[in-house]
Amino acid sequence: MKLLALLFYMVFFLPVWAFVRLTGATRFGRRFHQRDSAWDVPVAAQRHAQAQPAKGAQLAARENRG
Amino acid sequence: MTQYHLGISAFYHDAAAAIVNEHGIVAAAQQERFSRRRHDAAFPADAIAYCLDTSGIELCDLASVTYYEDSGAKFRRTLGSFACAGPKGADTFSDILPGWLGQRRRMDRVVAQELRAMQRGTPPDIKVTDHHRSHAASAFLPSPFESAAILCIDGVGEWHTTTIWHGQGPELRLVNSVSYPHSLGLLYSAFTYYCGFKVDSGEYKLMGLAPYGVPRYARKILDHVVSLKEDGSFTLNLDYFTFLEGKTMVGQALEELFGQPIRAPEVEMTQFHCDMAASIQSVTNDAVLGLVRAAARMTGERNLCIAGGVGLNCVANGKLIEAEIFDRVWIQPAAGDAGCALGAALDAQVAATASRPVPTSDNVDAMAGAYLGPDFSDAQIRAFLTENGYPFEELGEPALYDQVAAQLEAGEVVGWFQGRMEFGPRALGARSIIGDPRNTDMQKTMNLRIKYRESFRPFAPSVLRDHADACFDLKDESPYMLVVAPVTAGRRHPISQGGLGSINEVRSDLPAITHLDYSARVQTVSPDTNPRYAALLSAFHARTGCPAVVNTSFNVRGEPIVCTPIDAYRCFMRTEMDTLVLGTCVLKKADQPKNLSDDNWRETIPLD
């Protein structure tokens, strides 16, 4: 099981990690740290999210998580 | 027919159970108090059994059972985290994957199995809610507010690490959130680890260490480690953290940034660690203030409710109250994950009835002073003492308070065991060790001879609500000991040096509870919620003119707070406490049998 897990890690996770390291994309990357805001729902979009609370907030959050 | 709703938190840390009905909260308790394992994460069978017994029902009588978080979503977050961890995470991943592929990602099934194993009838289907929703429900639904902003800050739930909610009547609406890996809770835990304390239990030690230092590294932390944004959000620079890899919190990068290695546990503390504690506390205060301002902007509310582990940071709580961003602030006394059990139960109750269990009122919350745990009658206590042949004296109520007040004045340390046990991490006068705060040796005595813990650790006061102003500059009541407030200027004494060298300096005329920065973590006591404790404080006040006592939890270092008279008696005999008060029964150490000592007990309790 441990060997399978290691294999899985190397085949799937290491390429993702390499991509993130190179591009700085996703909220785990350095570029995210340099953003002006880390709210899942961008504050500018807050009014819209408030108008459609559940759906608006969830969609914006999903988008923002990258 | 009365409908009961059970909430359960378990399998991470601080497992707990809570049961509510349409009339309010019936019972709530942490599993650690029964199992005697601090922060016990195991399935809370004992706490559930206690909740059922108190309600007089079986599992089959429950209207709902709710587990406090979505383990499937946690599994997906764990995968996402490892996908970004790099080669160093492979080892840990291969260790934990079998667990996740087994039962961990369907904890609701484990809960169902465990409940069936209790053989107390067939429970209803297990519902699952979100971790931060559980926190938010625990913060708002028992609060005294009809509507409020709700701020939840912790390490991490499923994805969320910080959430802002809007509570109106029975409704909770998620307004905004910050998600993993950017987490104030993890930031504070990372520095807890860096300073040599245990993660998820040593955070309050770091908070207690902060006043001994100067925040000389705060700027460096803000420049390199965490970025506080103008809109109140924040991000962590993951170059300085190793928690993605799953084994530790920080590593070489942080050591190089500050030029000091990670402190090993129990190794001597230096001024560097004090300054580091002060620095991260200062950064946390700023971060929390930013979030509180954001919550005010986003909701337009004048009341604030708080939950999540960071809600137990009394220093940050004191700062946010001082800032007067909100008119009123209410903090859930079980703000950590144990409180999620209560939130999950309350949320289910509201979903079933579309109304909050207890009508809101201006000053009274629905927590019953957090006295929601097991109770032992005077008759039960008397029977326990008589059966075991432990000498005691039983006193009527007025005489009891006068005698204990006299013993406190004489410098004795008293174990005080009364009524229902507290729910949450604080002892609030039901399972407390108390002493005279005017006594200059009391802090040292309690730390080294009673609690067996680090000498820098401060103690907190309980003060009569109506006399709190005479001792502390409090803006509002603090019934749950979750707010730090300054000792009034007139009581302070000048300090000569500061830092660790000032541990034993007398800082005020209440030296045992005055921290180095003249602050104190205050509990205001009212006869409405704890009449016996209030009566004792009144007797002490009448005798000495001092309306406060030192109040520390009834346990020794590494042990959970005592639950039963047996736990209390054992703790009494293991320490140098002078007197034990169990209900109306008073036990003197000198009268107790000498053959009860278990000299090796320290080896059985791991240090926290």
Blueprint (SSEs and pairs):
The complex is a heterodimer of chains A (66) and B (608).
Chain A: H1 2-23, H2 30-33, H3 46-51, H4 53-65
Chain B: E1 4-9, E2 16-21, E3 24-30, H1 32-35, H2 45-55, E4 62-67, H3 71-83, H4 90-101, H5 107-117, E5 126-128, H6 131-140, E6 147-153, E7 160-168, E8 171-179, H7 184-194, H8 203-209, H9 218-225, E9 226-228, E10 234-236, H10 252-258, H11 271-299, E11 303-307, H12 314-322, E12 328-331, H13 338-353, H14 378-388, E13 393-394, H15 397-409, E14 414-417, E15 431-435, H16 442-450, E16 460-464, E17 483-486, E18 519-525, H17 531-544, E19 548-553, H18 565-574, E20 579-582, E21 585-588, H19 601-604
Parallel strand pairs in B: 1-4, 4-5, 6-11, 11-12, 14-20, 16-18
Antiparallel strand pairs in B: 1-2, 2-3, 6-7, 7-8, 9-10, 13-21, 14-15, 15-19, 16-19, 17-18, 20-21
The level-1 CATH class of the largest domain in chain B: Alpha Beta
- Radius of gyration of chain A (CA) equals 17 Å
Distance between the termini of chain B: 45 Å
Mean pLDDT of chain B: 94
Q: Share of helix among residues of chain A?
A: 55-70%
Distance between the termini of chain A: 31 Å
Order of helices and strands of chain A: HHHH
Query: How many E strands of chain B?
Result: 21
Oligomerization status of the protein chains: heterodimer
- How large is the radius of gyration of chain B? 23 Å
By helix and strand content of chain A, what is the structural category? Answer: mainly alpha
Most strands sheet of chain B: 9 strands, mixed
CATH superfamily of the largest domain in chain B: Carbamoyltransferase, C-terminal domain
Report the uncertain regions of chain B: none
Tell me the major beta sheet of chain A: none
Return the CATH architecture of the largest domain in chain B: Alpha-Beta Complex
Query: Can you give the helix content of chain B as a percent range?
Result: 25-40%
Which chain pair shows the most residues in contact? A-B, 39 and 40 residues
Number of strands of chain A: 0
Fraction in beta strands of chain B: 15-25%
